[in-house]
UniProtKB/TrEMBL annotation:
<dbReference type="InterPro" id="IPR016032">
    <property type="entry name" value="Sig_transdc_resp-reg_C-effctor"/>
</dbReference>
<dbReference type="GO" id="GO:0003677">
    <property type="term" value="F:DNA binding"/>
</dbReference>
<protein>
    <submittedName>
        <fullName>Transcriptional regulator</fullName>
    </submittedName>
</protein>
<dbReference type="InterPro" id="IPR029016">
    <property type="entry name" value="GAF-like_dom_sf"/>
</dbReference>
<dbReference type="GO" id="GO:0006355">
    <property type="term" value="P:regulation of DNA-templated transcription"/>
</dbReference>
Amino acid sequence: MLKDDRMQNLAEKRKKIEQFRQNSSLSPVHAELLGQSILSSWQRSNVAKIPKDRSAAPLRPAAQQTPNALQYALTRCADDLKHIAQQSSMVVAVGDIGSTIIWSASSRQMQSAAESVHFMQGGQWKEELVGTNALALSLKTQQSSCVFSNEHYMASIHDWVCYAAPIIDPHSKQIVGVIDLSTTWKNHNSLGLLAAERCASIVQAALLEQHQQQLYIRAFSASQVLFNGKVLVMTPRQIEILIILALCPQGMTLDTLHQALYGERKVSVGTLKAEMSQLRDVLGGMLGSRPYRILANVEADFLQIEQALDAGYIESALKLCSGIFLSKTESPFLCAWRDCLESRLSDAIFKANDADVLLRHVAHFPEAIDAVERLIELMPQEHPTYQILLKQKKYGS
């Protein structure tokens, strides 16, 4: 009897959601019942020009990419996640910061359904591509999300319920991905979100283990280097050397490194040798020579920005830009790399179509004239922010 009541309640919930979907103007009461995050996602999905006949997520072609910390961590906890998928009759998927699935495991009951909608490795579940879904929504809101049945935008997954939670790097505290547990709506469980959060904690524990013998470098705003999760006391010059080596993982000769660091400045090779000796002491031997190279695993905010831009994730790239890359550096190599990065970011900004992302960027960087100009192109003239942006462009140029 309790099961019948539960199924009746779930069916009634589906019916109400469908009524909401058909209603072009939802009242505040309706919005509260539906949930603001779902309503906002519906609104974004409606203006995203998603093909009406789209029934599966686009697939990203397989490409050779350097594995990052999240992918290494997944190799450590894959068996645990597969077991959860099989025991719970679910499909478990891990997405990167751009909502593309990089790993998945499915139970026998969900495998065919998951494959038919490309809820598997390579599936691109960005909101602007497939509409409302828990994986993208969790990344957008930076918190756990549940999307039930026909709350999904695509009709092909109206029989699903999905629970997602962000994966947070234990050291950088940055969101590095998202995990999603999906099953049929008839199996909806109020503990589903807790299960997703538990799976996220499993991945985060693997990330923590992965951080052994790992360097994490921050180069925007205040520069900082962490080794095995502990902040290292380093001079600005030593940080510059590490960043150059992180950008050149194949290694560098002493002369090449000297040119990259000092350029035409009159600094002896002996000075650089002394710097390298001190740096080796700080890193506990994690610095190789002939050629000079970092022997530890390296993660860095600037490398993550490069990866985000390579994958076309403009929102993720802009979020990581918390300041100017090494604003005081005189290294010709690092200055040239910064100019290249700023050029790539500017190009991506002029191709961006998400006004909310650009508004957040301008709020942090009012001097970002490229973002201001793109917003002026995107926004209707009657929008209250339009005139503010015009003034900002006038005084900023």
